[in-house]
Design a protein that fits this description.
Strand content: 25-35%
Shape: globular
Number of strands: 7
Radius of gyration: 15 Å
CATH architecture: 3-Layer(aba) Sandwich
CATH topology: Rossmann fold
Number of domains: 1
Length: 156
């Protein structure tokens, strides 16, 4: 089994991949209590101020975090020391994920990715690439089959 993790950061987006990532996290914490931070990043366009009011995106993020927090608490129960949630606004989801991992002293970031085709090349997207390149801790990437997600985004 993979090493003992105490602090896990899990970026979520509100799609079918979230459930799968939480299943993987449950496999990682089968014996040891852990603290999990679920994060949802609202990416703010360059043309807008970073602190722009984005009520629809904020509402969606809060709803996604509430559901994921419930799933984590009930799915992992006794294995958790703590589940916390963070809703972040940032220009780049990847940078926000890495910053949160640094701030939390994370042992691992657990995230999902789906292959996308962009400019004739297969990619996991900017966010996954940034996290893999810049994370200060281990990154466990669950590469899902393309049919497993309907994100429709090129960056994730």
């Amino acid at each position: 089994m993979i090493g003992h993790y105490q602090r896990i950061v899990v970026p979520i987006k509100g799609g079918p991949t979230d459930e799968r990532v939480l299943e993987v996290v449950s496999q990682l914490v089968h014996r040891h209590p852990v603290s999990i931070t679920l994060i949802y990043v609202v990416e703010v366009l360059q043309s807008m101020p970073l602190d722009a009011e984005l009520p629809a995106e904020i509402d969606k993020g809060e709803s996604v975090l509430r559901q994921a927090g419930h799933t984590a608490r009930h799915g992992l129960g006794h294995k958790l020391e703590r589940v916390s949630t963070e809703l972040l606004q940032a220009r780049s989801a990847g940078a926000a994920i890495v910053d949160e991992a640094i701030e939390r002293g994370a042992d691992v970031i657990v995230m999902a990715g789906v292959n996308h085709h962009r400019h004739g090349r297969t990619t996991l997207g900017e966010t996954v690439g940034y996290v893999l390149k810049n994370a200060p801790c281990e990154v466990l990437l669950l590469r899902l089959a393309p049919s497993a997600s309907n994100y429709g985004e090129e960056r994730r």
